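User: Show me an example of a complex going from sequences to structure tokens.

Assistant: Sure. Here are the input components:
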Amino acid sequence: MSGSNRLAGLTARPKDTDAAEVRKIDEVGEARGFVDRTPRKKPGRKPSPRTYQLHPKVLPMVGEGIAAEAERLGITQGQIIEQMWANYEQKR
Amino acid sequence: MPVIVMASPKGGVGKSTCAVLLASEFARMGADVTALDCDPNKSLTRWASHGLPKGVTLHSDVGRSELVTTIKNSDGDGKIVIVDLEGVASQLVSRAISQADLVIVPMQPTALDAEIGSEALALVKEEEEALSRTIKHAVVLTKTSAAVKSRVQKELENQLRGAGIDMIEPSLVARAAFSELFAYGGDLTSMLNNPNIVTGGKVDKALLNAQAFAEAVYERLK
């Protein structure tokens, strides 16, 4: 078996590839047990990406104080905590 | 150009070996071969990781949803598409059969392989009826003995022929070189010419067997 000319003469038969045709084939296969065995993705919500969000529980008046100060300075509560952490690191 | 699909819901019958032998032999003949690895075991991808023969392109991880489109996109002038399927009864198999110009069902000469493999043959028949067109299909016996034809093999051949099933001759003999293709990559010719490859088998005999098998498949594609 040699030479590419013989292979060049080979042809494919035209085949339908539309959705209806594929659905029909799926039904024929399923009737014989050839079912969809594509691995299912793990169910449920995916874990959130790490955002470094803190959920500290503090006394009510401390929480109100932080919120009021953040509003007065026009920054977020997170930024106040960052400043507090920076001061803590300096003093340590 | 034709699409050849290796199908059997049973694993370990030689689908990937048939796919590799046909891909490399048709490429050696000058065809532009696209092999689609649809088997989660990734046998063809493992073979390709050691080096693909010239003229063979491989698409890995082709799933159910993209199979038909990938076959369509791979088809073209001077191209042969070879699809290696997973050894289970799945929609992927039924969809691939619908796109085939030739379905090859490899079977070892055992009653179990014949029984499970016949499910693929029955599916081809049902798809033919549903699509109102013929889908050429044939059985090739694999891992047969080089020395003697067993009684079981003779009986199986008679049963299949009696049922009107096209049998590809020659069968694929159990050769170490066939399985070692997955360890070394490339094709049997490169294996034969590389003195560094130690196969523990007769590569020349394996090559002759593969060439005769590819010739028999070619005859069915004309």
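The lines above are the inputs; the final block is the predicted structure for all two components together. The helical segments of chain A are 5-8, 19-31, 60-73, 77-91.
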